[in-house]
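In the current project phase, work has continued on tokenised descriptions of protein folds. One protein thus recorded appears below exactly as we store it.

——
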Amino acid sequence: MRLTTKLFTIVLACSIGLASGVARADVVGGGGFSVPSSGSEIDQRIAFIEDRLDAHRKHAYYWQWGWMGVYASGLVLGTARAIASDDNEHQADYVVTAIKGAGGVARMYLAPHPARNGADELRAMPANSRDAKMRKLAAAEQLLMDNAKATERRWSEKAHAANVLVNLAGAGIIWGLGSPSDALASALVGITVGTANILSAPWYGEDDLAEYRSRFGVAQSPKMSWKVVPTLGGAALQVTW
């Protein structure tokens, strides 16, 4: 049992660290959207985003909680087997399975899909003044960008590489403790499950963001120009923006 405790401690620390890193990486910056020209345009923009978030709500909701259940099952089953088993040959496999499940649960909790609740968060915000509507629009645009970022993760080299590396690391621990066959099975199953998690996520976010930008435009960056102008003492550089 001392071996089990040590394995839990080492791999749990790695899993939680990875999950936290994923959560931080998913934070999105500003989108450079243009300022609405009227109150009606604000309403149109909010309505567009609410409609798109609600349209993808079911997929995001079932993806979020379905995969949370998958990883929780791995955590519970692996933990139960590790505690109950006296078979040292397979105990490392049980522990690694439990820890990978814990890492999956942590990642799903720390970085939940932004569309899982549709537009509920936006509808709960007040919109009784222009300032209130602008704050609501800013929150809506952030959700739209977060949703697009979540879609990008499906083809992210970092996400797929992290999936492979975590599972190979777990397999390496199992192999090093004397169970090569369990190590191979753990790696193959883990990589397959992780890939399925990544690719099954909702894939509409980028298209929604592109349509929003096409329909409502983006802020134009100020253009800078320069020219040389004559002066009494010779010439000077004049910059305008």
